[in-house]
Amino acid sequence: MNNLCADIGYRSLNKKGELLCGDSVEVTSQTDNSNSKIIVLADGLGSGVKASILSTLTARIIAKMMAEGLDIEDCVSTIAATLPVCSVRGVAYSTFTIIHLIDNEDAEIIQYDNPHVILLRQGKYVELPTTIMKIDGKEIYKSRVSLQKDDVFIAVSDGAIHAGVGKYLNFGWERDNIIEFSETFCQVGYTAKTLTTILLDKCNELYGNEPGDDTTVCVVKIRKREPMNLVIGPPQDPDDCSKMMSLFFSKEGKHIVCGGTTSMIAADFLRKKLIPLLEFPDPEIPPIARIDGVDLVTEGVITINKVLTYARDYLAENEDYAAWSFHRDGASQIARLLFEEATDINFYVGKAVNPAHQNPDLPINFSIKMRLVDELATCLRQMGKNIKLSYF
């Protein structure tokens, strides 16, 4: 087993005037192997409710069947027998793209009627070796390639290649244009979600902010695993301070210490000075501090609450990216470490009640702190991170 993992990001634009998107993306793990993932992008016929139903059924059926180890022939036959027939067009199908990551070593790509997947390797486009299969009268394109660090796979629905037709481009934003555009920034170090956002924003711009079709972009970025460790709050039993810190600092990867009392415990354990940095890059976020041997030292609840706000937005429209990706306050720095760098995150959560939080004038208590950590962990799992929570 190698040390690679997949960073997966996707977003969609609804066709102008439609409340539902006719494209769907489903991501799941192989039933018997969490290192093997199945990503399905389905584009339902037409738009609106019918298209949404068609694409959702297609994506979920394929993902579930492949997760259980069934062949693509069985998946396609099942879809053909399952999907409702459109009374207007007399057909029932959804186009689809499948990216099957096998043990983070190989990628199997299966495509039917969607724009072909783009592979960027070392920042340049690489042609995928392709064979054609006939299944139930449909031409299915199949490719297999060994994975390398920093490979970027880009899958789009046909709304992307139609962007700009009749407005800024005669023939739309063709696949070659998408390749050329993506090559300019794919090596900058952006996450899959940010790459997705950049591509989708360009599509929206070419549509004049009035999409003429449902448009979806899904990016899979292959990267090296990066462990990260975060401790917040002192342990319930003061005698467990040394045990908690020993476990925390023994873990591979960067270390983030959150909270005033927690940072003092960490400094005592390391026998280093705790040095407050009285700088306020953001007046709403308490300043950070410094301890030799610790990558980042911040305040606790207020800072983590802001990180959670950024995490919710990251999973939605990612509009706050411009804020946390450049600012120097503690919350922005934690967001960069957790969202962009980390793949595997260990949380060490102390359950001691902070006397400062018992002030009735403060909207903070023990249950709020626990809820913040739990919800942040949930958001990070939705980003595809591996999360482990340890309580003391």
Would you write up a description of this structure?
It contains 11 helices and 18 strands. By secondary structure, the chain is α+β, with helices and mostly antiparallel strands. The protein folds into 2 domains: about 5-225, PPM-type phosphatase domain (Phosphatase 2c, domain 1, 4-Layer Sandwich); about 225-390, no CATH class. Strands 2-3-4-5-9-8 form a 6-stranded antiparallel β-sheet. Strands 1-11-10-6-7 form a 5-stranded antiparallel β-sheet. Strand 12 (about 225-230), helix 6 and strand 13 form a beta-alpha-beta unit. The longest helix has 20 residues, at about 50-65. The radius of gyration is 24 Å and the shape is elongated. The mean pLDDT is about 90.
Q: What features would you highlight for this structure?
A:
single chain, 392 residues, alpha+beta, Phosphatase 2c, domain 1, five-stranded antiparallel β-sheet, 11 helices, 18 strands, elongated
Note the topology.
Layout: E1 4-13, E2 23-30, E3 33-44, H1 48-67, H2 72-82, E4 94-102, E5 106-112, E6 118-121, E7 124-126, E8 131-135, E9 138-146, E10 152-156, H3 158-161, H4 175-183, H5 192-206, E11 215-224, E12 227-232, H6 241-250, E13 254-258, H7 260-270, E14 275-276, E15 289-290, E16 296-298, H8 301-315, H9 321-324, H10 330-341, E17 344-349, H11 366-382, E18 386-391
Parallel strand pairs: 12-13, 12-17, 13-16, 17-18
Antiparallel strand pairs: 1-11, 2-3, 3-4, 4-5, 5-9, 6-7, 6-10, 8-9, 10-11, 14-15
